[in-house]
Amino acid sequence: MGAYVGVWRVRPFLCYVRARDMAHARDEAWRAYVSEALRLAPQGRCLTRSYGEVLSRVMGPAPREDRRSGDEIAADVIGRIGLEVTG
Question: What is the pLDDT of residue 60?
């Protein structure tokens, strides 16, 4: 991990480590996918899964997009913390 040049705090360093780990997992998934495709090509066969499917299994599900308006999000947050807004 000698490439880290950020702030000397734990949280930024852990974010850096997580990002490096995800990049490493993505690279390993690509190498495994291409290796398997090249192994099957001389046999006249092909892979049944796309790289996107393989990558989604490695990286986990994508975060869901929040489609609420700003007012709806604010009302939800205010409701959760128990504030009463008057006026």
Answer: 81
For residue 40, what pLDDT is reported? 95
SS3 call for 37: helix
Q: 35: which 2 tokens? A: 């290796």
Q: How far apart are CA 75 and CA 85, in angstroms?
A: 9
Confidence label for 47 from pLDDT (cuts 50, 70 and 90) = very high
User: Look-up: residue for tokens 């929040």?
Assistant: 66
**How far from each other are the two terminal CA atoms of the chain, in whole angstroms?**
54
What gap in Å lies between CA 19 and CA 17, rounded to an integer? 5
Given pLDDT bands bounded at 50, 70 and 90, which one contains residue 2?
low
Number of neighbouring beta carbons within 10 Å of residue 75: 13
- How far apart are alpha carbons 51 and 33 in whole angstroms? 7
57 closest CA partner among 27, 29, 84, 35: 29
